[in-house]
Design brief:
Helix content is 38%, strand content 26%. It is an alpha/beta fold. The strands form two sheets. The protein has a six-stranded mixed beta sheet, with helices on both faces. Helix 3 (93-100) packs parallel to helix 6. The chain is globular, with a radius of gyration of 17 Å. Bound molecules: adenosine-5'-triphosphate. Pfam families: ABC_tran. Belongs to the ABC transporter superfamily. GO terms for molecular function: ATP binding. Keywords: Amino-acid transport, ATP-binding, Nucleotide-binding, Transport.
């Protein structure tokens, strides 16, 4: 479904990703793990069209999207749920959700999708008129996830969905990510919490200094001794 073929991404002259290749098949939950600064966020931003490629290509469902504008990538069915949540703080919860659907013209379906999301995120319904910047951290995370779903994506990119959340909310967030995938949406997730990410994914890639150094099933990487030592606190 998604294929990154040898992509290099630079900030100025400095490469943050060097010839990264990875694939995500339809229906999969794939995770990217790695230390701070390994290039995980950069990978997601390159897919979303937020960063240009220095070399390599990205294809999604057979179409080239490398170098495409973010709205084109979104229009192809890829939604990005960014790190640090990044809701629009001055806008209400409702307006944030509407922003998620800004490319859609099927207004009746947008309304019913929003109603459906409220079953999963009842707190958002209670706070529809509240400015998003005044929500708690956990509520902002839920809003960011719900906003990404409002575009009816085929693939969702999650950047550190558990970051900064209390332990019970971390579990809840991972359960939501699993549900989204179970309902048929493909997921590519970046996570610092390597144990949880490997345990819940189908396949995983380990990035070090901007390069893919390991990949395999989540269970295979969990069983890998060097990964246990470096990333799982064994
Ligand atoms: P973290 O978990 O800490 O967010 P990450 O794996 O997501 O780490 P990236 O944010 O992708 O890492 O960063 C990869 C490298 O690119 C790092 O060395 C970082 O300092 C550098 N980098 C990221 N953003 C910029 C930027 N806007 N300008 C210059 N360098 C950047």
């Amino acid at each position: 479904m998604l294929k990154l073929d040898g992509i290099t991404v630079c900030y100025g002259q400095i490469p943050a990703l060097r010839r990264v290749s990875l694939t995500v098949e339809e229906g999969e939950l794939v995770t990217l793990i790695g230390a701070n600064g390994a290039g995980k966020t950069t990978t997601l931003r390159a897919i979303s069209g937020l960063l240009p490629l220095t070399e390599g290509s990205i294809t999604f469902r057979g179409q080239s999207i490398g170098g495409a504008a973010p709205r084109v990538v979104l229009g192809q069915g890829i939604a990005h749920c960014p790190e640090g949540r990044r809701v629009f703080p001055q806008l209400s919860v409702r307006e944030n959700l509407e922003m998620g659907a800004y490319l859609r013209r099927d207004h009746a379906a947008v309304k019913s999708d929003m109603e459906r999301l409220f079953h999963r995120f009842p707190r958002l319904q209670e706070r529809l008129q509240q400015a998003a910047g005044t929500l708690s951290g956990g509520e902002q995370q839920m809003l960011a996830i719900a906003r990404a779903l409002m575009s009816r994506p085929k693939l969702v990119l999650f950047d550190e969905p558990s970051l900064g959340l209390a332990p019970n909310l971390v579990e809840q967030t991972f359960a939501i990510v699993s549900d989204i995938r179970r309902e048929g949406t493909t997921v590519l997730m970046v996570e610092q919490n390597a144990y949880a990410a490997l345990d819940m994914c189908d396949r995983a890639y380990l990035l070090e200094s901007g390069q893919v150094v390991q990949h395999g099933t989540g269970q295979a990487l969990l069983a890998n001794e060097s990964i246990q030592k470096a990333y799982l606190g064994a």
